[in-house]
Amino acid sequence: MSYTSEMWKSIRKVEATRQRRLQETHPRMPPRGQEEILKRFHPDYVEGGMRELLVGPNRGDRTPNELADLLEGRSHIDAAAFDLERVDYECDILVIGGGGAGASAALLAQENGAQVILTTKLRFGDANTMMAQGGIQAADKPNDSPVIHYLDVMGGGHFTNVPELVEALVMDAPSVIQWLEDLGCIFDKEPEGTMKTIHGGGTSRKRMHFARDYSGAEIMRTLRDEVRNRQISVLEFAPVVELVMDDKGQVAGAILLNLETGDYSLVKAKTVIMATGGGGRLHYQGFPTTNHYGATADGLVLAYRVGAKLAFMDTMQYHPTGAACPEQILGQLVTEKVRGLGAQLVNVEGEQFVYPLETRDVEASAIIRECVERKKGVVTSTEQQGVWLDSPMIDILKGPGTIQTNLPAMVRQFGRFDIDMTKEPILIYPTLHYQNGGIAIKPDGSTDIPNLYVAGEVAGGVHGRNRLMGNSLLEITVYGRRAGKAAAQRAKEVELGELTLEHLQDWEQQLQEADLEPQIASPLLLPDYTRHTRPVSKVM
Ligand code: MEZ
User: Fold this and answer.
1) Which residue in 508, 393, 517, 527 sits closest to 80, CA to CA?
2) How do the pLDDT tens digits run along the chain, 540 residues long?
3) What are phi and psi of 422, to 5 degrees?
4) Would the CB of 432 count as within 6 Å of ligand 1?
5) Can you spell out the DSSP letters for 36-80?
6) Which of 337, 407, 457 has the most ligand 1 atoms within 8 A of CB, as the residue to mutate?
7) Residue 335 CB–ligand 1 contact under 6 Å
8) Sequence-distant (≥ 6) Cβ neighbours of residue 59 within 8 angstroms
9) Coil, strand or helix: which one is 347?
10) Taking Cα atoms as reference points, which of 194, 196, 220 lies closest to residue 208?
11) Catalytic residue list contains 230
12) Of the candidates 199, 214, 217, the residue with the CA atom closest to the CA atom of residue 134
């Protein structure tokens, strides 16, 4: 049994307050309250969690310690010994990353006449896209518009977002939904054929489109099938360990590692699209994560070393509702859709302590405050703390069967551990979910480095300091498509010079000048679970 007798006592209190709570809406936090709670409880503000970078284009900027160590790491490649004469593959566009952004980019690049190779660290589709649950935003209903969507995104990001990147995101959104549907993506629909949409945290209209609670898997299935149908070359288990430049200062390809043989190969490419996703597997501050095994911030490291500027790297997203019980699924995503459908967050006494659809940064901070400062969390047999997400409310509010129909993956995930979320609440605590920032891009996905394009979570600026639910699946498709198209156009005019790895020698020099002798070779490629750390979410 996953719940202890103490937890059951608390569940009885949750049940006892349910009828009253069904009538009650918790007030939203006023802006000043939001600011205060973020500063006091959001992990971005925890002292000692971040440090200043000592080298590279963001020297002087703060970023999580774990990421800073990788950004200031040494290369896997011995530049002096590497043979740049022996080119193994040549193409117009090398797409790095086999998630939704990479697949979207590959499709648009191919459609625009480019010869494309997509390389990916694990298998094609092994990525955060596949694990995304709740949905994708697009303002395509009569009561909505891209302008309203724009205001929500800017508000969610505390108005720090890069406006022209947000504009591109919201303007392309309706056509992206149509594109996905035309490719065969099966979104949930009302009986008369309109798409079902719900609210997410910080949205003023119901614009979250979804496929049950496995929206990302459905989108990834669609995109991956399409890439395979078009016979775009795909290399699996072949992460990039270094970008290659030419003597004109342009990106001109990459060095791949064959994870099975340990051999390196060289790809010469007229343009490169970076679509490697985020860094959730770096477990900042010891947080558990929702992220895929491959999310080790590789793209940030590769781009940083060739001089690309990073934006908003001092802000990470902690999803308010990561599973806190049982320990086997610690940190796994409990989709925001559960709250979107009506479930409330309640403490050990069964009291609602926060409006359920605050933006994620505020919601996560309120949960941490409830557990850490107010000591009103629920503690599990393995000393994990959390608060209840009162899921049975959904069926009471919306009719029996709503949970099973809308959240089958969630029901199954908890059912494996004898927790029936249709009958009893589930325990949650914030979990590391997303990298709000990344490589600075322009609206066509280009960067300050010639021939380097970027799409998806590895890019920075769209979400400012906080992303809203459903804008990640949107970003990967909108910016994957934009980068694919722009890179294909650029590839038509590029003349590459001599290949060089001189930037690695420059990098070594910068490290030396900063008195750094990095022990870590980066990109990390795979997370290191040999060190035993105590998750931050445990009771101290
Ligand atoms: O965009 C997301 O991160 C998302 C939809 C997550 C979720 O809660 O399902």
Assistant:
1) 508
2) 799 999 999 999 999 999 999 998 899 999 999 999 999 999 999 999 999 999 999 999 999 999 999 999 999 999 999 999 999 999 999 999 999 999 999 999 999 999 999 999 999 999 999 999 999 999 999 999 999 999 999 999 999 999 999 999 999 999 999 999 999 999 999 999 999 999 999 999 999 999 999 999 999 999 999 999 998 999 999 999 999 999 999 999 999 999 999 999 999 999 999 999 999 999 999 999 999 999 999 999 999 999 999 999 999 999 999 999 999 999 999 999 999 999 999 999 999 999 999 999 999 999 999 999 999 999 999 999 999 999 999 999 999 999 999 999 999 999 999 999 999 999 999 999 999 999 999 999 999 999 999 999 999 999 999 999 999 999 999 999 999 999 999 999 999 999 999 999 999 999 999 999 999 999 999 998 876 566 777 776
3) -80, -20
4) no
5) HHHHHH-GGG-TTSEEE--SSTTTT-EEEHHHHHHHT-B-SS-TT
6) 337
7) yes
8) 52, 53
9) coil
10) 196
11) no
12) 214
CA 213 to centroid of ligand 1, rounded, Å: 10
For residue 316, the cross-strand partners are 435
Query: Is the previous residue joined to 443 through a cis bond, with omega within 30 degrees of 0?
Result: no
Told to judge if 339 belongs to the known catalytic residues of this protein, a careful annotator would answer yes
CA distance 375 to 382: 17
Q: Which of 203, 200, 162, 202 is nearest to 462 (CA)?
A: 162
